[in-house]
Amino acid sequence: TGPRTSRAIGVPEQTRSAIVDRLRAAGCVSADEEAELLLAEEKSPDELALMVARRVGGRPLEQVLGWAEFCGLRIALDPGVFIPRRRTELLAREAIEVARCHRRPVVVDLCCGSGAVGAALVAAVSDLELYATDIDPAAVACARGNLPGESRVLIGDLCDPLPSPLRGRIDVLVANTPYVPSAAIATLPQEARLHEPRAALDGGPDGLDVQRRVADGALGWLAPGGSLLMETSAGQAPDAAEILARAGLSPRVLSSEELDATAVAGSAPLLAER
Length: 274
Prior knowledge:
10 helices, seven-stranded mixed β-sheet, alpha/beta, 36% helix, two-stranded antiparallel sheet
């Protein structure tokens, strides 16, 4: 949840309580906090009623609000676009640390969704050359609104839309690929199943199909010593690390108990080792 704002001040307690009751009855665990956020976004009573109805109807809170908080930033969200998760802040933090090791780093954000990871990188790393890609036109449009004009947000499958002069020049290739096994999609919360694109969730039979495709092509795009970083689950991490190793990268597993997050990173060999 994001910070409360003063816009909710002055709302009658009866209205506030009624909203909390409706949210709680709909199964919202943090009904009080959600009510504050909805009230803070209110522009008119009719709009407030519509937002509450959408939330009670099962739409994700972030899509109702039109934004999600990520790495301290407010990321604008359009309907149907994948919602950035807090656990993905591990991926962003690690990408930031790697990018800071390079002078004017070239960074590519694959499967960029709303552009949240790219936006975190732009906010934290100066003099950054950023490219982002996604196969979903709605995600690309959303990311273009969240990333500065000098960033290039391209529509297409993984690295396919990247300009060929980037081959061998990318310092940081970061990818929040879909990694939910196909059979597990049915067990996801309804908010994800119904309101986020399946292509942003479904990683194939073992959840690692897209990661294999990213890793297989990474070495041709990475600069000597460049890094590929991908989010995964704790259970998938050993297999994901092996995927990186087979692709010619030196793997390591990253984890955060605070964020309940796991990622893998693979370093390309230096030029003399290629």
